[in-house]
Amino acid sequence: MQTPAQLSQNAPLDLCAALDAAVTAAHAGAAILQSYAHHRSDLVIDRKARNDLVSQADREAEAAVIEELRTRTPQFGIVAEETGGQVAGPATWYIDPLDGTTNFLHGIPQYAVSIALIAHAGTRLAAGPALTEDTPVVAAIYDPNREEMFTAVHGSGAWLNGRRIACSRTQTLDDAVVATGFPFRDFSFAQQYMPTLHEAINVTRGVRRLGAAALDLAWTAAGRYDGYWEMGLAPWDVAAGTLIVREAGGVAEDMYGVDPWPIGGYVVSGNQAIAAALKAMIAPHLSRGTAA
Fold first, then answer.
1. pLDDT for the residue 160
2. 163 closest CA partner among 222, 89, 97
3. How many whole angstroms separate alpha carbon 267 and alpha carbon 253?
4. Which family does it belong to (predicted)?
5. 216 labelled ligand-binding
6. Is 174 annotated as a binding residue?
7. pLDDT of res. 10
8. Which residue of 61, 176, 190, 234 pairs with 32 in a disulfide if CB–CB is 3.0 to 4.6 A?
9. What burial class does residue 119 get, using C-beta atoms within 10 Å of its C-beta: 0-12 exposed, 13-18 middle, 19+ buried?
């Protein structure tokens, strides 16, 4: 006889219930962030590493998100930026309670709460075979300054405040506006990254760097950017945005083509044409040793 845990593992995931939990949790985390937004000078700020900051706003927002998700989906694992956690069960939540911490602390209104559910290999989503690899299946990215909620469900599409979104139709880099992120915490990959930035400046319509990876991916899904690439990120930075771009008809991949989603933090994304062009632009500069 199977245990309740085994039955839960074998049952298809209820993605609609998971999305509802993610959206509710994102709102709960954002409410805390905004309660601090006009009192940033009073925040207690710790330095984890060079240019890697954490405040009580991050920690309290993360606690609110985790509480909501644990209450509503206790069967799933949790991996969160500030408190860690572990992969467990049929799927695991990846949580960034404040993507764009530096922006937040400087009063720049470009930050978000990012939450994604990664279903593990062997998990079933609905009628049909089990997944063969870890796969993002639910995503919510909430920008509290613009009150924009980006969401996606595996196989069902991507939305912005309930309206379907799609990646842009731009076909060439010379017509494209692309986003990126500069090395700011880990500079070990700068020799790989800087040539890609130099080339993008010369071959695209424009390059933007706004400092919140989750929103860069969400804006790519919404067609505001034609593509986006960045190196040296964390899994929780890209988990939700990866699914949103994919469900908007685009590509969001591990830059090295090794992992099923960019868990290593080397991401390239865009519509089909622009993502392919960005990959071709980046490939000559990559050090294969970094992929290990």
1. 98
2. 222
3. 6
4. Belongs to the inositol monophosphatase superfamily.
5. no
6. no
7. 67
8. 61
9. buried
Low pLDDT (below 50) residues in the chain: 1-8, 49, 51-52, 290-292
Q: Domain 4-164 carries which CATH code? A: 3.30.540.10
Decide: 161 and 144 in contact? Cβ < 8 Å: no
Any known ligand binding at 143? Answer: no
Q: Locate tokens 């400092």: which residue? A: 211
Task: Residue 39: name the closest of 100, 103, 107 by CA.
Answer: 107
- Per residue in 62-113, pLDDT tens? 999 999 999 999 999 999 988 889 999 999 999 999 999 989 988 999 999 9
Nearest Cα to Cα of residue 270 among 278, 262, 280? 278
Which fold would CATH assign to domain 173-283? D-Maltodextrin-Binding Protein; domain 2 (3.40.190)
**φ, ψ (nearest 5 deg) of residue 144:** -70, -20
Residue 270 in tokens: 């865009």
Tell me, yes or no, if the two domains 4-164 and 173-283 fold the same way: no
Q: Are 118 and 135 in contact (CB under 8 A)?
A: yes
**Is the torsion defined by CA of 231, 156, 10, 80 positive or negative?**
positive
Q: Residue 276: what residue type?
A: A
Q: How many CB atoms within 10 Å of residue 248?
A: 26
Provide the H-helix boundaries in 186-225.
190-203, 213-221
The residues spanned by each domain of the chain are: 4-164, 173-283
Question: Is 99 a known ligand-binding residue?
Answer: yes
What pLDDT shows up at residue 84? 84
98 is annotated as contributing to ligand binding:
yes
Q: Of 224, 220, 229, give the one whose Cα is nearest residue 249.
A: 220
Report pLDDT for 228: 98
Q: How far is CA 165 from the centre of its chain?
A: 17
The CB density around residue 192, as the number of other CB atoms within 10 Å, is 18
For residue 190, the model assigns a pLDDT of 84
Per-position DSSP letters for 240-266, written without gaps between them:
HHHHHHHHTT-EEEETTS-SSS-TTS-
